[in-house]
Amino acid sequence: MSKLSTKTTTYKLHAPNYVSSSSDNNNETIEKYMIPSPTLPATAKSPSPSRNNNKGIKQRKSIKFRSDDDNNKFPTRLREKLSRIIELMTYFRLILALTLYSLILVDVIYIHKKKEKPFWIEIFIQTINAGFIFLTIVGHPKRIRNLPRAIRICWAVRRGEIQTILSYSSTFTEIQKTQINVARDYKWYVYDTLDSSLNCTPIKLLSILLIWNIGTLAQYGISGILWFIPQAKRPEIPYITLTIITSISELLPIPAVVIQSKRARMAHNYEIRYTFRYSIQDSC
Questions:
Q1: Vertex 66: Cα angle to 63 and 70 (nearest 5)
Q2: Which InterPro entries does the UniProt entry name for this protein (predicted)?
């Protein structure tokens, strides 16, 4: 009997006795030794099938919207890549121009001394001229179509028809459309900044485009001399004159365009540009 009572006493020491607890500490003792139930609490609600369906629909919609955004970003990325390629072609065109003018100078020296130059120099001149005239033909349509636009903008400024942020009229929409079209072709052309010192003035725009078009026509003349007149019979004075005109027209606008490009970048970075949000922009 003594052994049995000892075992019983040991069992009572290790196991909690909920029945013998006092009424005051009953709740505290139950909470202390309570084992969490694996079942859901009474306040929690099991997810209904309708909510799962709605969640699936929302996920599908978000995936659809994300794919639409990716589709909209594709033309923008393509446009950025094309503009980057055009910018690289512009630098390459400048390198070709400087090389061509140097070779033409060598050709003029041989013509003046009435000596026959090495054959490889003639091949090199014809090759560089072919590449340069190709890039000139590619870029000439943009230059020639923006020249009348620049004249129209200058004429509008002279007549006081350029709208500002404080004054807008529907009669000025044609001028606004012209400015938007020029800005699309030349990213350095900004005309609607709050800081007027960053704007490209109409006179500057007209001067740059006029010089470029004159240089393009002179380049066509140089190509005609190189292609259709033999080396010994090339006219020296027209040859030199066209070369000087072309070199000036290619090199002179570079500082103005570089400075204006930096100003346009500042205008875009600091977000001080404003845009007239009218239907005319959608119709352009």
A1: 135
A2: DUF2985
Query: Is 65 a domain residue?
Result: no
Q: How far apart are CA 226 and CA 220, in angstroms?
A: 10
Token pair listed for 166: 């404080």
- Residue 13's pLDDT band (boundaries 50, 70, 90)? very low
- Please tell me the distance from the alpha carbon of residue 85 to that of residue 87, in angstroms, as a whole number: 5
Domain count, the chain: 1
* Alpha helices, H only, the chain: 2-14, 26-33, 49-112, 119-159, 173-185, 202-228, 236-251, 253-269, 279-283
pTM confidence score: 0.65
How far apart are alpha carbons 84 and 76 in whole angstroms? Answer: 12
Q: 25 lies in a domain?
A: no
Determine whether 110 is exposed, middle or buried from the number of CB atoms within 10 Å of its CB (0-12, 13-18, 19+): middle
Indicate if the pLDDT at residue 125 is higher than 90: yes
Cβ contacts of residue 115 below 8 Å, gap of 6+? none
Please name the residues in contact with 203: beta carbons below 8 A apart, sequence gap of 6 or more: 154
